[in-house]
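Quick question about two entries, pasted in order.
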Amino acid sequence: MLKTNEKKLVEMAVQGKPASAYQWGAFEVGHDGVPYAFPSTGGITYNVKVGDPAFGWAGDHIEAGVSTIQDENNRSSKANSGYNFLACIGNEARIVSGAAKGKKGTVLGTHGGVEHVMIDFDAKTLDQMTMDDKILIRTKGQGLQLLDYPDVLTYSLDPRVLHKMPIKETNGVLEVGVTTVVPACVMGSGIGSMNIGTGDYDIMTHDEKIVKKYNLDKLCFGDFVAIMDHDNSYGRTYKQGAVSICVVVHSDCVLAGHGPGVTTVMTTAKKSGIVPKINAKANLGRLLGIGRFKK
């Protein structure tokens, strides 16, 4: 087991609610110049779950499960930033009001711009929920350190997920299982963001040849992926030899510069820190038995 400082991590409650689904405009214009009107972010999404394909939906930037927010009227507020920063992938969420009171779910990731935290609940719970429900997240993960690997930083990762990830220690290097290796050239919206502990950034998917070459169209919600030559240590930037491990958190998109969104969970600026290994089972839902993998 990886040695960490998890016993020193602070556990803290934050509370949110389902975020309203928006229509951003009567039409938006895709990368190909074609106008479209699709469902997009927000709401309680019944039929899109972790483990489902990130492609093929009649929608744009679709978020699996329940999209939640702390402050819907001021998305850039400090309170909402704290909600997004503290909520880590794998954290337990509990409904504290309404017909579904007491039911538990799991944080799937964060989505920048709209500043949503996405949470998985089972189908029965989703049917009981309303847009007025309150959701308490028991946060833990920010500040997590890998004691034997000081050059590898972690963000937004619950320690229980870390210990379930397909990771192998080999000669001072972490071999991390991922479903997909993503080249640096396709990273788009979100590059340059300084706050790695919130939001996401997008894998651009509008070049058909490179999509097929790297099997990007096979991505699923919850997949662990490796972004090559991208350093997410203190901001999202290109750096040769760097590797960032991320989780797919929203669907493909037709807007230029956009595509499936990924939340960063692990990064290193040094080539020797992380080596990605293809593993078809490297999916958050499979590791935790949630979403499409719930028995």
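Here is the second entry:
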Amino acid sequence: MRRETIARAELGRTGLKVSRLAFGTGYLDGPVAPGARLLVGAYELGVNFWDTSDDYGTHPQVARALREVGREHVVIATKTYAATATGARRSVTKALRELRVEAVDIFLLHAVDSLRELETKEPALEALAQAREAGLIKAVGVSSHSREVLSRLLALPEVDVALVVVNKTGAWMKDARPREMVAVIRRLYQSGRGVYGMKALGSGQVTGAEVAPALRWAFRFPYAHSICVGMTTVEELRTNARLWRASQR
């Protein structure tokens, strides 16, 4: 299969190498075949980092695309809202079955947006760490829109990866202005965690002529290894890949 050769970044201390553009599959929850084709097209453009979640309904699309491109060529991140150890273990088992893989590269607690919620989900986090030790996942992560939560992750050695809000408008930032959020993201990045960004387009809030400047800014953000963007059409994919490549020059 033809694939563009583009430099990839080390995702912190995980040992995983990822493209600067990550494919967010949250909007591909329709028929499996078209979504899988789009993911294969992304791989052919050099996008080897695919982000999904057990609540997106897109594990089947990812699984079908993996069969075509080869499991070893793609880094897969998925997520769970589980709060208990039992729930987290069930999520891991479900993901392995639906993705048809022996191990998931990154498994994140999904959208943990308060310190109280993080504390409540400590059993789930520990279960993910145990799954990592068992070889079922390669890296443990947390997704959050909260500056306080991200700051707390610095004290949690079991957390390898953080999925964080990266934009200059402050959209979806729960408890911080952009400058404050950048400061904690920088600390995570410098600590050796893998960091990748979300909400560069504010989950659809940025449209039209503002899309290209917003993505160029995100792709040049110095404290994230990758930027996750949701895509649903070939046109979006090609445009975003072109902006990504141009931003790296």
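Reply: The mean pLDDT is 96. Residues 17-247 form a domain with the TIM Barrel fold (CATH 3.20.20.100). Hope that helps.
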